[in-house]
Amino acid sequence: MRSEVDVFREFLAHKEMRFTPEREAILAEVFAEHDHFDVEELIMRLRQKGQRISRASVYRTLALLVASGLVQEVFYEDGHMHYEHIYGHDHHCHLRCLGCRSIVEFRDPAVEEAEKRIGRGHDFATTGHRLDIYGYCRQCREKKE
Amino acid sequence: MRSEVDVFREFLAHKEMRFTPEREAILAEVFAEHDHFDVEELIMRLRQKGQRISRASVYRTLALLVASGLVQEVFYEDGHMHYEHIYGHDHHCHLRCLGCRSIVEFRDPAVEEAEKRIGRGHDFATTGHRLDIYGYCRQCREKKE
DNA sequence: TTGATATTGAGAATCAATCGCAGATGAGAT
DNA sequence: ATCTCATCTGCGATTGATTCTCAATATCAA
After folding, report:
1. pLDDT at A101
2. In whole angstroms, what is the distance from residue A140 CA to residue A142 CA?
3. Are B131 and B95 in contact (CB under 8 A)?
4. Quick check: B134 and A129 CB within 8 A?
5. Which strands make up the sheet holding B103-106, listed edge to edge?
6. Domain coordinates in residue numbering, chain B
7. Which residues, given as ranges, of chain A have pLDDT below 50?
8. What is the pLDDT of residues A117-140, one digit of tens each?
């Protein structure tokens, strides 16, 4: 499998854009950990490694990463956007605890299949989906009792 | 089935809050049409009916409607929140065309079932889910060719 | 009617995200 | 190596949605 660096390079080349040191550093940091993150965290992590990249560039690069399909937006209920890198991972969905706000990833073939089937039924050529299941994890249930 | 008015009244009573004329008007307008809407549209519609309710009250009341379960937030990719009333409707998910941004609702028992099954598998007591399927509708596919 | 409490509206404040622009940088041509 | 020119970056200002503050108002219970 091509590395995310190659994928991003090619994506940029296709749009006649440059693979700059800033974009390279942001890409590397986004793929450095497998966790959801937001812009503030990403900037912090870059700072800690001595990278001083402006907020605007981080936003601009994230938009490119999303457009390239390497990164996905994750909707949180806290007023701003979060992200996760998805290249090289199976598609997954999120189980979200309404108590502690924790998020567990899961994969489920039946959901993948449902996407295709529902798409066919409505004459949609589907490209993907986003499923969030809400509930309460064991700890939060016990806390409530 | 109890009307949405009764449900909201009870919800407010439970929290020792009042069913004011403003809240009544907003509730009525939210349920007047079955379409996704955003705050701006809602205020516009209220204005056209002679209601002059402040933006702050609309936001505050919408939060209450969401908390009461009568209304659901719908994530759009246009930078602000959209809503739909859900009381009295089966739970449904959204098929979203990436071309024309149109949204089609659908219901699917397999998805409901998947929610339960996945919840059991992860020791989550599920309360609901949100599924968006992305793709291209027929019109947009034909346009691209 | 009175007092206690909840609610509203207006505008200020907040905060994520975007924009505009001047100067910096990079890739290819010479 | 230098020139050229389009692309990029960083800064700071701006936008725009949403929330907050607070004084004035409305409601409920006694």
Report:
1. 86
2. 5
3. no
4. yes
5. A103-106, A93-97, A125-136, B125-136, B93-97, B103-106
6. 4-85, 93-144
7. none
8. 999 999 999 999 999 999 999 999
pLDDT in tens, B12-49: 999 999 999 999 999 999 999 989 999 999 999 999 99
Q: Work out if A29's Cβ lies within 7 angstroms of strand D.
A: no
Q: Which residues of B touch A133 (CB under 8 A)?
A: 115, 118-119, 124, 126, 128-129
Query: Which chain D positions have some atom within 7 A of a protein CB?
Result: 6-12, 16-21, 26-28
The CATH number of B93-144, from 3.40.190.10, 3.40.50.10860, 2.60.40.420, 3.30.1490.190, is 3.30.1490.190
Output the distance from B17 CA to C5 C1' rounded to whole Å: 10
Count A/B contacts: CB-CB distance under 8 Å. Answer: 103
What's the mean pLDDT when you consider all of chain B?
A: 94
Q: Interior CA angle at B72 toward B93 and B97, to 5°?
A: 40
For the domain A4-85, what is the CATH code? 1.10.10.10
